[in-house]
Amino acid sequence: MRKVMVFMLWALCIFSFIGCGSITTKKQNAMELSGDGKVKASSYGSFDKDYYDAAELKRQIQAAIDEYNAENGDGCIELGKCSKGKDGVFLVISYASTEDYAAFNGVICYAGQLDAAVGAGIVSPAVRITSSDGRLKTTVGELNDKEGANIKILAIEEPMVVDVPGEVLYVGEDVLIGKDGICTAGSESLGDVVLDEPCYILYQ
């Protein structure tokens, strides 16, 4: 697993975040979470240096995926696309769960019930959140006391465009929500590979 983590850190370091738009079909860093917990994630970044070999990158990513699947079960992760264009390389990878995404990439990525997330220490009750319409400000703890069993939360440690299943109810700091319900996590840290603190999106 350590070898996989080292490789993925190198791969992430060559990707630079670009602007928002629709989800994983566009050349951007994005995550699409489905109702059954599966994840489709895309990455796009400049790849214009002579010493960057797109074919070699694809082989290394596939090798890392094969190693992960051998240890954790066939089909946990699948490489959907790895293509090089004039401006950069576009990757699409599918994961069986947020747990697989987190383990493979070495980042925080959790999706589940709010009360379970609070109980496991994934999110602090003191975290401040704002309703999707911007009118109500509260804390995770206050919301959890009222509706913790009925609300889900996504915690993500990377800056990216995010689409969650269902309706977005609240978001944490450094998350922007569009009129279409698509969120931008890490909106103030788009140049970073990993955020200092996770971003939170609460939905139902």
Description:
The protein is built from five helices and 13 strands. With 204 residues, the chain is an alpha+beta fold. The strands form two sheets. It has a seven-stranded mixed β-sheet. It has a six-stranded antiparallel β-sheet with strand order 5-8-13-10-6-7. β1 (30-33) and β2 form a beta hairpin. α1 packs antiparallel against α2 (54-72). The longest helix has 19 residues, at 54-72. The radius of gyration is 17 Å and the shape is globular. The model is unreliable at 1-22 (pLDDT under 50).
Summarize the structure.
Helix content is 26%, strand content 31%. With 204 residues, it is of the alpha+beta class. Strand 3 and strand 4 form a beta hairpin.
Topology:
Blueprint: H1 2-13, E1 30-33, E2 39-45, H2 54-72, E3 77-84, E4 89-95, H3 98-105, E5 109-113, H4 114-119, E6 128-131, E7 137-139, H5 140-147, E8 152-156, E9 160-163, E10 168-172, E11 175-177, E12 183-185, E13 199-203
Parallel strand pairs: 1-9
Antiparallel strand pairs: 1-2, 2-4, 3-4, 5-8, 6-7, 6-10, 8-13, 9-12, 10-13, 11-12
Helix pairs in contact: 1-2
Features of this protein?
204 residues, alpha+beta, seven-stranded mixed sheet, six-stranded antiparallel sheet, 5 helices, disordered N terminus
Query: β content, as a range?
Result: 25-35%
Mean pLDDT: 85
Number of helices: 5
The helix/strand order is HEEHEEHEHEEHEEEEEE
Query: How would you classify the helix and strand content by structural class?
Result: alpha+beta
Oligomeric state as shown:
single chain
Gross morphology:
globular
